[in-house]
Amino acid sequence: MKRTSLQGDMCPIARSLDVIGDWWSLLIVRDALLGARRFSQFQKNLGVAKNILTVRLKTLVAEGILETKPASDGGAYLDYVPTQKGRGLFPVLVALRQWGEEFLVAPGEEFAALVDRKDGLPLRKLAIHANDGRLLEQTDTKIALPASASKEQV
Predict the structure, then answer these.
(1) Whole-prediction pTM value?
(2) What does the pLDDT profile of the chain (154 residues) look like in tens digits?
(3) 66 and which of 16, 60, 92, 101 could share a cystine (Cβ 3.0–4.6 Å)?
């Protein structure tokens, strides 16, 4: 089944989901940011079928989220390395992690925590701030459409 591309959508969220909107892609990026580099590492860590992993890695490379480099050990394999665009997904993954910790982890349930390397403490919850530094809630924001947009495009 072919999906509809959201590449030209007016909403940046839709465009982002067009590139990284399936769970395998985000989990591959998560593992790459944690240091996984080889196809075999991703396959072992995620348990994803090789054909699916192949397609997702090709897409992430084509989209400039990962890049391939000669293996760091001089072997014949390629390393998959996050680009600046890929590293830019770190706050997205932290936001998903924190949402999951708040709403999907049962009280007293153990889970793998993301902590600061310097002091070993959990990260402060992400917050959205206005240009002047005020803390913003969802109700404090709105979508500002370009003048050229019609109601049908939204």
Answers:
(1) 0.87
(2) 566 777 767 888 888 988 888 899 999 999 999 999 999 999 999 999 999 999 999 999 999 999 999 988 888 899 999 999 999 999 999 999 999 999 999 999 999 999 999 999 999 999 999 999 999 999 999 999 888 876 555 5
(3) 60
User: What is the distance between the alpha carbons of residues 120 and 107, in angstroms, rounded to a whole number?
Assistant: 21
My answer on whether 35 and 52 are in the same domain is yes
Instruction: Specify the residue for token string 């989220």.
Output: 65
49 Cα distance to chain centroid = 20
Token pair of 40 as six digits:
């075999």
Domain around 134: 90-140
Give the contacts of 50 (CB within 8 A, at least 6 positions apart): 43
Q: Per the structure block, which two tokens stand in for 95?
A: 């936001």
Sequence-distant (≥ 6) Cβ neighbours of residue 109 within 8 angstroms: none
Overall domain count for the chain: 2
3 found inside a domain: no
The candidate with the shortest Cα–Cα distance to 32, out of 74, 111, 93, 73, is 93
- Do 135 and 95 have their domain in common? yes
